[in-house]
Amino acid sequence: MRMQPRQQLLEIWRATARLCYRDGTWVWGGRDGSNSISDAEQLLCLMLPATTDPRFVLERPDATSDDALRALADLGDSIGVPRLLVRVLSEYLQRYTDLDGTPVFSGAGYFHVDGSDKVSAEQAGMDIVDSYTMSVRLSLAAIGFARVFRTVVTRAQLRAEIDELEEQASRRLTAAMVGLLRSFAVYAFEADSPAGRTLIRTVNQTGLPDRMVVESLWQGLADVRAALRGVRIAAPDVNDTLDHPGRLFECGWSWGVIRDAPMVDVGEEIGVQRPGVAEAAPYLYFSLAALNGIEELFSERTRILGLLTEEQERLARALQLRWDITQRYWSTVASFGTARWPLEDIPWRTTDNQESDYFSLLVTAMTVQDLIQQRSPDTELGRVARVLDELAGRARIVRRPFERDPAVALHSPGVLISLVGSEEAGPGRLLWPCTDFSPLLLKRMLGLAGLMRDPGLRGELLRQADEVWDHLSRRRISDGPARNLWDQAVNVYPFVDDRHDLPSWRYTERVVECLVAAARLTGGPPLRSERLVAYGEDLLLEAEHLFSQELLNGADTAGPAMRQHLQAVQVGLERARRIIDTRPGTAAALATRVLQELDQLAAARQDVE
Fold it and tell me: Which residues contact 46 (CB under 8 A, 6 or more apart)?
């Protein structure tokens, strides 16, 4: 890959430190103002690499690399950086906690109003799923950071600050998990309703009668319906509505706590559980956001460090059930049938009859996660890769845009999602802008490449990922205090009117996620090619045979120089034999070099004779 994730992440750290820390004060906010989501994304630009990749560790001063310290020089030295992060994380947690101790999960600054420029105060304070998911990720990062940093701290005052940070982060984590539980929705509808007819039209790629499609889909979702019977916490009883063969359904996360969602019985103090107003129907964007956040609850780091309390473990199990159900549902629908998948019929059409390439990308992301669980073959992964490649072209990421190109709207102003139910608290219905098409596409490509076992398919997908990264690189802000952060869409799409001086922390954080994924992929072992293994084995067999002949001819009884040379040849052979199964290309190269050296010895002996 041409991305060079380490260098790019360090450059983002340098730009973030330069912009956000001035005169001993942390400066909150960016292009969209200061709110619970944007400020969390701002912190995750630093915390995400530091808590997921040991090469960027900051909580252990003796293990922090020199280039990381140079990038964060504006924040302090190896001790000063983690101390400052403890203070800033604590400030964030206090900033978004009400006087009664209730955590705040509002999306003010990101909200827009349909037909109006004004958002009411009540609307601005509405909790939203994006804030829940960002809080899960940031809280887990803060708790893990605090636990490790505490082991190297001796000052009592600093240890007390770390303990307070962990306690506050744990409280916010529990509240965010409860919010996610209360936002899970199951939407059931008749097959002959507008939603039912739209879903049937989406999945029916072979022109079958509607009755056969409904019956087949109902049977294909039998395991999902059975799993939904285990949903107990904060979800209405849906069993009676799903057991009729003529009824279809969707499941996932709404944009906020759904209307009439019951309170969750929690054994920890998390403040007030606010009533919900969101419609009890899933949204693709918020479902994917919830899946990404919930995944962190059962990650390897979370388990090893024991970041969850006993009560949080209980909530995590309930969320994991919903995580499994949602991914299985959307993967089943997206890959329904035996011919062309509905996913391949771009753009995706939602049951409220909205169409967009962005929806296709969201469904693709959820489908890939389930393919991982099912250990799907490369042929199926290749079908998803072709969808991603087509989306990159349709969105004018790897193709040239033209004037008044409708595809440019995917990037600016983005796809606007209508938040049904929010209109009850203000002058109009709230809209949620989604402008992260390009980084989301790149992240899906990198994730899919990490699953592929065929070197050719992986190489082709990574070449496509490099093209998307070239597109993202050109969208960096090139001057001013926010230089080297994102996003300046006008750099790529000259027909876009907006030019910004401040960064979009949402977009920058999405790019950081891509770079972390690229670093993880690059740091893993290379793919094992069976063809290379067979080729390397043949080379090694010949080299080992010729080496044995040299010993038989008495080469080891010659002078010290010859014995030293043969010893180096033997070391090369042993090294090649040791790595042939994991790095066959390197083993073949070592065997080739040994063969060349042995041939030189044979040629020299022939000259003497």
Answer: 13, 16, 85
